[in-house]
Amino acid sequence: MAKSGEKSVKKVVLAYSGGLDTSIILKWLQQTYGAEVVTFTADLGQGEELEPARKKAELLGIKPQNIFIEDLREEFVRDYVFPMFRANAVYEGQYLLGTSIARPLIAKKQIEIAEKVGADAVAHGATGKGNDQVRFELAYYALKPDVTVIAPWREWNLTSRTKLIEFAEQHQIPIAKDKRGEAPFSVDANLLHSSSEGKVLEDPAQDVPDYVFSRTDDPMGAPDKPTIITVDFERGDPVAVDGKKMSPATLLKHLNDLGKANGIGRLDLVENRFVGMKSRGMYETPGGTILLAAHRGIESITLDRGAAHLKDELMPKYAELVYYGFWFSPEREMLQAAIDKSQEYVTGRVRLRLYKGGVAVIGRESRYSLYDQDLVTFEEGAVAYDHRDAEGFIKLNALRLRTLAQRKKKLGL
Length: 413
What we know:
413 residues; alpha/beta; Rossmann fold; Argininosuccinate synthetase, chain A, domain 2; 2 domains; five-stranded parallel sheet; five-stranded antiparallel sheet; 12 helices; elongated
């Protein structure tokens, strides 16, 4: 029996997609560690049929009782996506964290399965250059500190596509025809987004080829007539579109469909990975882009200025924690508690216009609105605002500026 570090591995739970790489990992784990392998495949709304993953695992010798396939779409959106969107989380000003937010849920389920079946190790298929290895493993250790983690891409000598193919052929692992050459780019997808990286996308000076896009229609070919929708919120979470109540996953899928048809949510980004390098990726987040605009729209009339500005100050830190993989950290949970408190009165309806790649808030209403038309109107009327009060307010705020100016004048500066 092989060892990982100083621990013997008897049973390992593998995050298994059913694709070529994780199928190779499955066989490699059996061969290298002599361990019993349990596969876990998560349905996060990636849009793929998952039963082939079960059949492929069985083909590779996994017992039926050791194959776990779970539909996590509702849990993913309700307990991970929505809490993140309450924070309006955006990494480096643009990225809506579609891949980042999925990893802690997958890791959590792997640990739960490990506890259930008595496994002493978990494994993932993330490479040694990316962020996902960090996200998976930080979550594993946060939830099961004594777990053994196996990261094949950091251990094996299968360092090229050719070697991977050779290994697959030697062990009778089925290879899809399009996997026999270099893949033009890699894709990760879930209900929130689709991300594409590598190969044809590695030169940041070059346009993203049209064939890379899968979740959004070309904005220039989108309908010439705008699509008008409403989104209803309760305590910061969306609950209905066009007045129709929906479950979290159903609502996000519906927004995805609307966003796709209108070419919304494309992002060509060069980002700073946690491991230190820059990478170029193409992200498609149609429903999330609509949701972010809608949420900020309802907050604009229901959040007090101080709370709103504090949220905006906290957001980059929150987004960074999600991106780096610290979902299960105390600091993320502390920020979440503050953010959730701010959402107490974020309830109401937002009207939006979707048009050729853009989303605009065109109306918002709430029974908790702080917007007072009598206060802001230029028309005459009985209002609780005396214009003369502004003079003292301005002079008090100008006091330090006047003092600084007087010093300059006194010293001839």
